[in-house]
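Work Package 3 (structural annotation) set out to generate three-dimensional models for the target panel prioritized at the project kickoff. During this period the team completed the workflow that converts sequence records into discrete structure tokens, so that structures can be stored uniformly alongside our sequence database. As a representative example, we reproduce one entry of 313 residues exactly as it appears in the project archive.
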Amino acid sequence: MGSLTVHKLPIIDFTKENLKPGTSSWLTARHAVTHALEEYGCFIAIYDKISSELHDAVFRSLEQLFDLPTATKVQNKSSKPLYGYVGQIPIIPLYESLGIDYPNTPQGIQSFTNVMWPHGNDAFSESLLSYSKVAAELEQLAVKMVFESYGVEKYYESYQSSANYLCRVMKYREPQPNETNKGFVSHTDKNFMTVLHQNQINGLEIKAKDGEFFGVDYLPQSFVVMAGDAIMAWSNGRIQSPHHRVTMNGNAARYSLAQFSFMQGNKVQTPEELVDEEHPLLFNPFDHLDFLKFYSEGNNRYLECPIRTYCGV
């Protein structure tokens, strides 16, 4: 029997001019962010730093990118596990994506652009760099609120100094007659925090605690901020890393961007303040990229909870 609960992601406004640490607006948003991450593992953020002109430029750039020959797109490679091109997979034929490492830096964007367009593409570089900087700002606001909520804000500067980003740009084409409408299989993110943005084609579905999947309706100038396995381990299980999937219904392609944060240089470690008799330690410290390597090997991606297998106490 299905759940009688009608699930809907909380909507949190980050646009207020006085949304600064210590203000009443900040404290209200901080409480809402932490509660949403504990209950659903994600929330919808209203953030007006992306103008309509930049929004349109980003998605024009993505259409141009995915129109490139497959032989060009597969040159998107990385020494880091799960960072490069993904596509041409029979069980998810609608899905194709590329990864941009260090997307919020000119060097990272230019390195990616040079591979895709050896003669340059300034419009792509400029729009994606501007977008990625905003996505990083939003991620940092959300993480800072979480650290403050748990009384461990003294560790935030260390987190910020070790946080690096991967922007995965994605296309889900429309299904053909008699073809699966599965855009992507149910999974959890393996990073610390994700910021998702899309065109106006919905498809993202979140799994609630009662096991029910429900769809997400994006609002204009909105993002979905989602917890990954790493922040679930860091918070000693307080924050949920939600299963989610993409289902395509309709006759238009869905383009989206997922900007993932990863801790590089410092181990992901539960603060001692979050461990007590009521909350015994659940996860050992771990290296984030080593966890990605573990997840990418053999059948580990099919584990029910890879992070618990990898570093659970």
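The mean pLDDT is 95.
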